[in-house]
Design brief:
Blueprint: E1 6-7, H1 16-36, E2 50-51, H2 58-61, E3 68-75, E4 85-91, E5 97-105, E6 110-112, E7 116-118, E8 123-127, E9 141-150, E10 155-162, E11 168-172, E12 183-191, E13 195-202, E14 208-214, E15 217-223, E16 228-234, E17 244-253, E18 260-268, E19 273-277, E20 280-281, E21 290-296, E22 300-308, E23 314-321, E24 331-332, E25 336-338, E26 343-346, H3 349-355, E27 363-370, E28 377-385, E29 391-394, E30 406-412, E31 418-425, E32 431-439, E33 442-451, E34 456-460, H4 461-466, E35 483-491, E36 499-507, E37 512-516, E38 525-532, E39 535-538, E40 543-553, E41 559-564, E42 569-572, E43 578-583, E44 586-591, E45 595-610, E46 615-630, E47 634-643, E48 646-647, E49 653-662, E50 670-680, E51 687-689, E52 693-698, E53 703-712, E54 720-731, E55 737-739, E56 744-745, E57 749-751
């Protein structure tokens, strides 16, 4: 191997005296950032939400969020000096975040950068050079650390290296918690005329040694604290007829876990080819199979390469999965044998020929089945558009821990940028997930959606925005918005479901093809339920549907919801007043007799706790109450009066008005028959009434007035005081109670 990898930068010196300066400087700077940053606030949800589990009140179920000093790091020393190196920052938290950048020079000296303040859920795109003032831009930097106060993965970052017409590559930031071992391996495909560049960085305060091993042999390099090394190798094809070759590199460090950070890039000007090299921590492999989501195969040339990192042969078989199982069958490839520690490009020609005849396979998910079942298979997948020559790199990896069943990605639609997000169910059973698309001034929220095993959901942000597609609450993404944050998480279940997602941001004019697949610290935890309405009235025999909605919270304190969740059981505290039962997860309540009672709904759901490395699911029971009152529907006479109250003895009239009031329980347009009659007429005044019975209609919660004309006759010679009475004699709804039972007297009518 010696001589095959060329060191591009060897300006390293003994940094023992510099390490102390770095430690003191960094500590002082971070403490200042913590004091300057705003305090971390926990979001709250209105309504009555509680836990039915003894000893677990609602507040105790919410995550206890304690901000800690966090650092994510990437080695530089390749391409960052270019003004076309773009830094993308993503604040996953609900509070304002202060990000403090600290560069390190090749000599190991820290160089502070300009601090960046991010609003909650803000995604910021900026030139990497904007972090440095003019006095610092002349330094030759070897690494960049981003410090913030918060929780693991609360700040996301990625560098986009724009390489002109060749394309672009993504440079990841990682934290120490991303690593489980001291061994990393990578495999990649490269055109014959391409160059592979690997950047190694020491993210610790102690010197480390790195043993590099590829198919040619071994070599060891020494990295001082916060130093980096850039290695380069030209492509060599096995034959003149080959399109490309497979590259690989194994890295093993003597330093602590997480001290070594590595990334790489493959470039070829002749082939207009640019693709990142991803290193995988072998200690983080959880499952034998590999998955990729959102691979373009229409009018594209994909390349799939794999490496067996174990000491025994592995049989691997590729598959193309349609976006939905309902669209068509899965395409099965032939198994290939990969010898111990060997690399191999898999011939996808048979699968591509079959896919070309099926329009539903223009975009596919890729599943590489490790038939040997041995942990240790890694791979890489790239696809180059045959027309635009733009390269799309699709992460190919095992599903990993349950944390990877989440995502927080930037999105943008300015200029000709497009953003397509894909979420694939890589598990063996159906699973649900939720989506929240944040943008300045609002949020686009989708209720939980179910994905069958192998199914993929596609979200085209530009199309959703241009077509003004409404979310589950009727909201749309405004046309004036050009960027934001796409959040998703597996929903509910028992913690065994596995989903995988990524965002692909493309600009043909800028020659940018960028992929994001960053998770958050844990899947969303269930927060509680609320009942709508939480106070209701009905009638004997009447029915009310009480909706059961849920809320979720992430490990940063962001609250999502409400969404239809349903209850698993309900408890009616007085069955003599109401009968209650579950109906599709909601509560159906039916009135029995007058009175009030309380109904309690219960739902058991998942809550995640994390130890800074992994997420652990627990099941808790949540409860919420609503109060119901049963009242009979009533129509009552509330007032009877004459106007005017004085009339002449002959041929004069007064209007007798009867005011009816219906309780809210009364139905619509109930027919009511009202009777008016003389009640007191001691002087026997001769009077007539136009009609002693009249009919009107009334609806619940309203009032109506029925009028009668009472007149003195032409022959009347008597004066006196007269009173009438009105009563309800019938209604079209026999369940309605009427009153007063004996009717109601009017005021006095004085005949002069």
């Amino acid at each position: 191997m010696r001589g095959q990898w060329l060191s591009l930068k060897r300006r390293e010196s003994d940094l023992q005296t510099q390490r102390g300066r770095w430690r003191v400087f960094t500590t002082a700077l971070i403490v200042g950032s913590l004091l300057a940053s705003s305090s971390f606030s926990r979001a709250s949800v209105g309504g009555r939400i509680s836990s039915a589990s003894p000893g677990h009140q609602f507040d105790h179920l919410r995550p206890h969020i304690f901000p800690e000093a966090q650092m994510i790091y990437t080695p530089l020393a390749y391409g960052w000096e270019s003004a076309r190196a773009e830094l993308v920052l993503n604040n996953n938290g609900p509070s304002t975040m202060l990000v403090t950048p600290i560069f390190s020079t090749m000599e190991g000296m820290p160089v502070p950068g300009r601090r960046v303040t991010l609003a909650p859920a803000e995604v910021r795109h900026m030139a990497l050079t904007d972090l440095l003032d003019e006095a610092s831009q002349g330094h030759n930097m070897s690494g960049l650390a981003l410090h913030y106060s918060g929780r693991m993965l609360e700040a996301g970052a990625q560098i986009i290296l724009r390489l002109g017409e060749v394309g672009s590559v993504d440079v990841p930031f990682t934290s120490r918690s991303d690593y489980r071992s001291t061994v990393q391996e990578a495999v990649w495909w490269m055109p014959c005329r391409a160059q592979a560049i690997v950047v190694l960085g020491n993210a610790s305060e102690a010197p480390i040694r790195v043993r590099m091993q590829d198919t040619e042999g071994e070599e060891e390099v020494h990295l001082n604290p916060y130093a980096s090394r850039v290695l380069s190798r030209s492509g060599r094809c096995p034959s003149a007829s080959s399109e490309g070759a497979v590259g690989t590199l194994r890295l093993e460090t003597t330093g602590s876990v997480g001290s070594l950070r590595a990334w790489g890039v493959v470039t070829s000007k002749e082939d207009l080819f640019a693709s990142p090299i991803r290193f995988y921590d072998l200690g983080g492999i959880r499952q034998p199979h590999l998955f990729a989501t959102g691979l373009r195969v229409k009018e594209a040339t994909p390349h799939l390469v794999m490496k067996n990192t174990t000491g025994v042969p592995i049989s691997a078989r590729p598959r193309f999965l349609p976006l939905s199982p309902a669209l068509g069958d899965v395409l099965e490839g032939m198994p290939v044998i990969i010898e111990p520690h060997a690399v191999r490009e898999v011939d996808l020609t048979p699968l591509l020929q079959k896919a070309a005849t099926r329009s539903y396979l223009d975009i596919v998910s890729v599943h590489v089945i490790n038939e040997s079942g041995i942990l240790g298979l890694i791979g890489a997948l790239v696809s180059q558009d045959r027309t635009t020559r733009l390269v799309y790199e699709v992460p190919l990896r095992d599903p990993g821990s349950v944390r990877n069943s989440t995502g927080s990605y930037p999105w943008r639609t300015d200029g000709d940028y497009t953003t397509i997000v894909s979420v694939t169910n890589v598990g063996e059973k159906s699973a649900q997930f939720t989506v929240a698309i944040n943008f300045p001034g609002g949020q686009y929220f989708l209720y939980p959606r179910e994905l069958a095993a192998g199914e993929t959901a596609i979200f085209d942000l530009r199309r959703m925005q241009q077509q003004q597609t409404p979310d589950s609450r009727g909201q749309v993404i405004p046309l004036s918005v050009t960027a934001g944050q796409f959040r998703w998480s597996v929903h509910g279940g028992d913690g065994t479901a596995r989903l995988m997602g990524r965002s692909e941001i493309v600009s043909l004019s800028q020659r940018v093809s960028s992929s994001y697949s960053c998770p958050v610290c844990c899947p969303y935890s269930f927060l509680g339920i609320v009942l709508r309405p939480d106070l209701f009235t009905t009638t004997p025999g009447g029915s009310v549907l009480v909706l059961v909605d849920g809320f979720e919270v992430d490990c940063y304190g962001n609250v999502f919801g409400p969404f239809p969740s349903g209850a698993h059981e309900c408890d009616n505290h007085n069955s003599g007043v109401l009968s209650a039962w579950l109906e599709n997860g909601n509560i159906r309540a039916e009135g029995v007799s007058e009175g009030t009672t309380t109904i309690t709904a219960y739902r058991s759901d998942i809550v995640y706790f994390d130890d800074g490395m992994d997420c652990y699911p627990f099941i808790f029971t949540f409860s919420a109450d609503c109060r119901g009152e049963v009242r009979k529907p009533k129509i009552f006479i509330t007032e009877v009066w004459f106007n005017p109250q004085e009339i002449n003895r002959t041929l004069d009239c007064s209007t007798l008005s009867v005011n009816l009031s219906a309780s809210t329980e009364v139905g619509r347009n109930v027919q009511v028959r009202v009777e008016a009659f003389q009640w007191r007429n001691p002087e026997r005044v001769e009077l007539t009434i136009d009609n002693d019975q009249k009919t009107t209609s009334i609806s619940g919660g309203t009032t109506e007035i029925v009028t009668f004309q009472v007149c003195t006759t032409v022959n009347n010679q008597k004066s006196g005081i007269v009173k009438y009475k009105a009563r309800i004699i019938s209604t079209s709804d026999l369940n309605v109670e009427v009153g007063p039972p004996d009717g109601m007297e009017s005021n006095e009518l004085n005949i002069r």
